[in-house]
Amino acid sequence: MTRIPAPMAGAGRARGGFAAAACLAAVAGGGQAAIAAPADARAGLVEVDLDSDIRYATRRNFTGRALPGYCEPKPLLLRSAARRLLAAHAELGRTSGLGLKVFDAYRPVRATRAMVRWAERTGNRRLLDGGYIARRSNHNLGTTVDLTLVDVSREGHPELDMGTRFDAFTPRSATLDATGTVLRNRLILKRAMEGHGFRNYAREWWHYDSRRPGPRPLDVPIGVSPRRSAGPRPPAGCRTAAPPRPPPPVRESGT
Ligand SMILES: [Zn+2]
């Protein structure tokens, strides 16, 4: 696996545990964040080697089950977005001893469709209408990331208090709907991300987009190599990689 040099971070990853072995060795030696590439060269996606907890690859998300297309818990982004994210992480480490932890990044179109079906099936259409679950998400473009702050100076890189959990569909998730330490933490994250070309979705403190003209929605499963996808029993939702679709208009929305 090849690696792309990335800016120095304030500290290396302590957990996340999902990057390839080659990447783990790299950060253990030099405390560097790195991009593991290519996750899917055709799609232009690369893996970002930061602390991560990819909830949609597990049952620990609002649907209660892993979403289709999340065959492995890896944070993938388009290369340009990955570079900006790593730069934000490195700057946080230098200036405040903090770092970034990723909950979600690139999301296959099939996973977005599964979220919509879940909302319709469970009587949660209000989440679609209220802007919490997007029918067309910028996550499908590989330019958007859900994340929080961690203290990289402490064992286990604990998360900072952001007031609500990730994917809490409540007005209290609005970035500026907070006070005291929680507001301060949200603004530290906002300042760091906006300084590197990301834009916050005001209803969700964790959601940041770096969309530029050009990217198209992708439906490439996360973490499936051609050899694995041709195996006898591929994971559900990981059997095929549909060709990219023409770009529909993408409105600003969350999750
Ligand atoms: Zn999001």
User: How is the largest sheet built, in terms of strand order?
Assistant: 4-6-7-9-8
Small molecules bound in the structure, each named once: zinc ion
Number of helices: 6
Q: Which of globular, elongated, flat, extended, rod-shaped describes the shape?
A: globular
Number of domains: 1
| N-to-C span | 31 Å
Strand content: 15-25%
Report the CATH architecture.
2-Layer Sandwich
CATH topology: Muramoyl-pentapeptide Carboxypeptidase, domain 2
* Secondary structure: helix percent: 25-40%
Give Rg in angstroms: 17 Å
Oligomer: single chain
Q: Which segments are poorly predicted (pLDDT under 50) over 5 or more consecutive residues?
A: 1-32
| Count of beta strands | 9
Q: What string, H for helix and E for strand, traces the elements in order?
A: EHEEEEHEHHEHEEH
The biggest sheet amounts to: 5 strands, mixed
- Overall residue-averaged pLDDT value: 80
Structural class: alpha+beta
CATH class: Alpha Beta
